[in-house]
Structures are given as C-alpha cells and as structure tokens.
Specification:
Low-confidence stretches: none
Distance between the termini: 24 Å
CATH class: Alpha Beta
CATH topology: Aminopeptidase
CATH architecture: 3-Layer(aba) Sandwich
CATH superfamily: Gcn5-related N-acetyltransferase (GNAT)
Structural class: alpha+beta
Shape: globular
Mean pLDDT: 93
C-alpha cells in the first residue's frame, strides 16, 4: 500500500491547537537541547500572531511535517536582526529588495522517517503558492545539509553566509527567492 501525504493549509488558531505535535516534529527533526524547547514553543505561539500567518501541514493521515511563515516586517526579532546585518554587509537597497515585502518562512520540518520523499519540497511550494509578497526568505544551517540543497533546488540563493544570531551557537545562511516560485525546480520536477 502506497503512503499518501496530503497537504493542508491552516491559520493561526488551528496552528496553536496543534503546537504540541508541531513541536514534537521540530524536536525529532532538529534534535535541539531540551532546555530550548519551552522557549521554542513560546516563539512558535508568538509567530502565530504575526501578519498573514500561514501554516501548511503534511498529513499521512497524522501530521508528519509542517511549514509556516508570515509577512515579515520591522519590529519582528528575526526580521530586524537579519535585515540590519544584510544592510551592513550589502547596503540598504539590497535589504529593501529582499526584506521590503517578504514572506518569512520560519520553520519547515518533516519527521525523519518520512524525509526523502519530496514532502519538504511540496511544503515549500505550497506555503509560497498564492502569496502576495515579492520574495521569500529563510535561515538554514550554513553547511552542506539536505535542507540547504533542497532550498537551492527550489530557487533560493544565499543572501548571507557565516551568519550568527545574537546569543547563538550555530552558523547560518540567510537565503531568499523571488515569488512566485517557478512551477518546476532545478531538479526538473514539476508541480501542478
């Protein structure tokens, strides 16, 4: 029997209702230190209050993955930190081009046992589909990871590398792509 994975968009209220499941997927995929989980839960809950929040769940039939984002704007922690650094490195025109009207993709995760099946790729395309913003931006580990290759495959390019968030211990790349995403990607896959 072939596993079928359905994608479903939800809004902030339903996202808050499934936060425990979302956090469990995040934990399985990222393996963060346990002392960071309560803070991550608070961050995710807060993100649901941001303008034009959207979450896409991957269900098979239980939730096995998710992606969420929102319209980025000044006053949001990630937006302000990254935009300030990009301005310092590349100037205000580049920052305006990428962050002036951006979908900020905060999280994309799939349970490890379901990875490698194209679910993450489908989540990215679905969360970007129909968005009014001109760009989509995200952060990912600055390393040759499967996630980083996936982002490049669907059209994201590095805006900054060797980026460290204040108080952080890991090095990130900040990546962006123009919207709408192409209906295919650099691997030749096509999406309906």
């Amino acid at each position: 029997m072939t596993e079928t994975t359905e994608l479903r968009r939800i809004g902030p209220d339903e996202f808050v209702e499934v936060l425990d499941t979302v956090l469990a997927i995040y934990t399985a995929a990222m393996r963060p230190p346990p002392d960071q989980l309560s803070g991550r839960l608070g961050i995710m809950r807060n993100h649901a209050t941001y303008p034009h929040f959207v979450c896409v769940l991957a269900e098979s039939p239980e939730i096995i993955g998710f992606a969420y984002g929102f319209h980025g704007m000044p006053g949001q922690w990630w937006h302000d930190i990254v935009a300030r650094s990009l301005t310092d490195r590349s100037g205000p025109a580049v920052t305006e081009e990428w962050f002036g009207d951006a979908l900020e993709i905060a999280e994309i995760h799939v349970l490890p046992g379901h990875q490698g099946r194209g679910i993450g790729r489908r989540l990215i395309h679905t969360i970007c589909e129909g968005r009014p913003e001109h760009t989509a931006v995200l952060s990912t580990h600055d390393a040759p990871t499967v996630a980083r290759r996936l982002y490049r495959d669907v059209g994201f390019t590095d805006l900054m590398t060797e980026f460290e968030f204040p108080g952080g211990r890991e090095i990130y790349a900040i990546a962006g792509t123009k919207l709408p995403l192409a209906s295919g990607d650099r691997t030749g896959r096509t999406y309906a």
